[in-house]
Design a protein that fits this description.
Strand content: 15-25%
Order of helices and strands: EHEHEHEHEH
Largest sheet: 5 strands, parallel
CATH class: Alpha Beta
Bound molecules: zinc ion
CATH superfamily: Response regulator
Strand order of the largest sheet: 2-1-3-4-5
Number of domains: 1
Radius of gyration: 13 Å
CATH topology: Rossmann fold
Structural class: alpha/beta
Length: 140
């Protein structure tokens, strides 16, 4: 069974996300901030990470950097789900993520993106080639 870590500080949004992915047959682990998410990711080695950007303690950008710098989990597919990303934010272009989704994101689109990334499996990202090698569309 696919294991998904969701980093989301908003309780209501987290509850909806957990329900959507559980219904799709995934094991869902939820962290309320980036620091807790990093601990979960290192401990549980999930198949994929879905992260918010604005979170206490460690934000989504820092979480992505920390995962990519960690030798045990650096190839984990990561998707951003954010309601606060400005079009043209330079961090979105250089972030080593597979997909960027904006809230509110329709559940079917969310699910399709996550399923694509689970099918792609672990793969390398680096600063020189931030685009996903699976060539998944990065939309901001
Ligand atoms: Zn990728």
């Amino acid at each position: 069974m696919a294991v998904l870590v969701i980093a989301e500080d908003d309780e209501d949004i987290a509850r909806v996300l957990v329900r959507v992915f559980k219904r799709a047959g995934m094991t869902v682990l939820r962290a309320p901030d980036g620091r807790a998410a990093l601990d979960l990711i290192v401990e549980e080695r999930p198949d994929m990470v879905l992260t918010d950007l604005g979170m206490p303690r460690m934000d989504g950008w820092q979480l992505i950097e920390a995962v990519r710098a960690h030798p045990d989990v650096r190839d984990t597919p990561i998707a951003i789900l954010s309601g606060h990303l400005q079009p043209g934010d330079p961090r979105a272009g250089s972030a080593e993520v597979c997909a960027i989704l904006l809230k509110p994101c329709p559940n079917d689109r969310l699910l399709a993106t996550v399923e694509n990334l689970l099918a792609a499996g672990p793969h390398q990202h680096d600063a020189a080639a931030p685009r996903c090698p699976g060539d998944l569309p990065v939309t901001a």
